[in-house]
Known about the structure:
Elements: E1 2-6, E2 27-28, E3 31-32, H1 33-43, E4 48-53, H2 57-69, E5 75-80, H3 86-93, E6 104-108, H4 117-125, H5 127-139
Parallel strand pairs: 1-4, 1-6, 4-5
Antiparallel strand pairs: 2-3
Amino acid sequence: MKAFLLAAGLGTRLRPITNEIPKCMVPVQGKPMLGWWMDLFEKHGVTEALINTHYLPDSVRQFIKNYNDSDKSAKIIESYEPKLLGSGGTIRDNCNFVKNEEDFLVCYADNLTNANLSELMKFHKNRVCQEFCVNRFNKQHRIAA
């Protein structure tokens, strides 16, 4: 499975901490938020993550290089945004990343969680949930039939 890990934001609510580091690199118990996310992804079978960058991207790039050079089971791809695209814009512009995927995750790198992503995907794959979600969105004309 693949995941988008949205990390490009400016981190204005975390100032002054984010004056020098992007919010996805803010350490929690000595580990950057990206490290916590990648550990969670590995635990739940995510094999590839696309991380979007914009604000202070160099430390994120170094994290990605170090991570990809290690013996981790997942890999990271960077998508640099010269201009912030917003969550939907990042997914739209990188839709080929998940072109052949039946399911994928969209996560926010500045949220700390220990959610059971396997159970989340199991719930998502429940036919009742899918029918409810698709039918509800169709009725609101948000997606094409």
